Amino acid sequence: MKKRTNKRGFTVAEIVIAMAVVVLVTATALTTVLTTRNAERNVLQNADALRFAENAWECFKASENEQDFLTAITFAEGVTPEGEAGNYTFLSSEYGYTASLTLSGDTLSVRIVAEEKELLSFTYTKGGEAP
Question: For the chain, which residues make up each domain, given as ranges?
Answer without folding.
Answer: 12-125
